[in-house]
């Protein structure tokens, strides 16, 4: 089997710290379970690269990325130095759109050994897959400013919802729900307030659900959903939401399953016309960057989603099992989970558990 070509963008802050551990784990898991090999292409695109070159990636950067089988991404953003308007808006968000990675899959699972901030939740009790629309909606780069800096300043930020865009993310979520034991799906909107875009989403939901009579589905307003993610997260199975609502709800689903340091994500182009991208849900965490204490498990679990996407299911399952074992044993934990272990020690423990 030829080596899988992976572009690696560590980015800023804890991004490179956690991605280093993910690369180590993937190497070993794939060699052991699937006899697979990797050709890693480390790309230095980050805030410091921007400071040196005046752009987040070189002019042929998108062509370079397109030649890979997948992209493993840490995080970008160092807002004290360069605005997110540059770092995030020249690299991360255009990547999702240019490569039409319209499915942002964000699982949330309460692992054994992880303290849950909610009382009385057994391991595995919270087990949801959030399908976040990833190319349009509230993140559409449409809008502008008039009279900046004056007291007459007007800013317009337009949400763009297309029938095709709504239907395709809903269909991806229904397909996933159909394959899960509970076969349950919740569609999140705010169509009581935002009648146009969210109204179109609701119409698309009502049309697509007809194709899935085997899936029990319902619609929930995002404010009530935020409450229920805390009050009764165990009731959710597959959740499908717009770009912004999916973003916010997945920091919440990460928190109720113990830590954002465990939250993984896949930005998938299901057609495989362009590479998909795998990254933790968290950002560059400037508050802990450089201290060597970031939890690398979110990055490792994101790499497991990449292994699934590459068809290396045994390696993916082996990686998840190794993470679950380290968490269940509870001997090494980073500070976000109440321990004192370093990022590298967690990488070592996951490697040993493989
Ligand atoms: P953040 O996710 O970076 O951090 C939020 C909090 O979670 C911080 O207290 C941080 O220490 C903690 N945390 C995050 N990851 C952790 C880990 N692996 N282990 C332990 N603790 C962890 O969010 P923020 O502070 O709002 O954003 C910081 C920067 O990152 C901003 O520039 C933002 O735009 C950017 N960002 C980038 C991405 C991305 O590139 N995918 C995602 C989110 C935020
Ligand atoms: C995420 C991040 C990004 C998003 C930011 C950095 C624009 O929060 O991946 O969750 O909102 O999508
Ligand atoms: Mn986010």
From TrEMBL:
Pfam families, sorted: Iso_dh
Superkingdom per UniProt: Bacteria
Domain named Isopropylmalate dehydrogenase-like: residues: 5-350
Signal peptide extent: none
GO molecular function, one term: magnesium ion binding
Alphabetical UniProt keywords: Manganese, Metal-binding, NAD, Oxidoreductase
Cofactor(s) this protein requires: Mn(2+); Mg(2+)
Enzyme class: oxidoreductase
EC numbers: 1.1.1.83
Similarity annotation: Belongs to the isocitrate and isopropylmalate dehydrogenases family.
Protein name per its UniProtKB record: D-malate dehydrogenase (decarboxylating)
